[in-house]
Amino acid sequence: VSGMPGTAIKNFSCVIYNVSLMNCTWSVGRDAPGDTQYFLYWQNSREEETQCELYVKDENGRHIGCQFQNVTIKDTTAYFMVNGSSKDSLIRFYDEYITLYRIGKLTAPLNITANCTGEPRGCVIEWQEPLTSHVENKDCFQYEIDIKTK
């Protein structure tokens, strides 16, 4: 592996929320020179590799994250690679394969209604499953109702 040890990013993680928004974050390498700048590339399925378009920066202007829009989860693994550049030293790259559906945060169930008619029937609570781009079997959702009484 080329690049100085300790210059690659650390603590890389990504989360998909609201169905199609993805946030990736990382920490600057421990031994990366002060002028190091990082660049994130990713490849979803067999699509072309694309670079991040919207970087999140730290107070020194270094890229420490990326926001993606219109992400579609195909039932496959995506490839992520973060490389870096510096005038002072070679920066080691970091890469990881991530199964996208594992990093998706589900939205809340939709159209929740509670209809309370009193005894003996009590309350009927109904909802629709959360929005998602990849779950084909709606039976795999599990729900929990937490009823607070006053």
Automatic annotation (TrEMBL):
Localization, UniProt: Membrane
Give the record's keywords alphabetically.
Glycoprotein, Membrane, Receptor, Signal, Transmembrane, Transmembrane helix
Q: Which gene encodes it?
A: Csf2ra_1
Q: What is this protein called?
A: CSF2R factor
Q: Residues in domain Type I cytokine receptor cytokine-binding?
A: 11-103
The superkingdom of the source organism is Eukaryota
Q: How does it sit in the membrane?
A: Single-pass type I membrane protein
Q: Which GO terms describe its cellular component?
A: external side of plasma membrane
Q: Give the species.
A: Nothocercus julius
Q: Which GO terms describe its molecular function?
A: cytokine receptor activity
Q: Which InterPro entries match?
A: FN3_sf, Ig-like_fold, Short_hematopoietin_rcpt_2_CS, TypeI_recpt_CBD
Please state the span of the N-terminal signal peptide per the UniProt entry: none
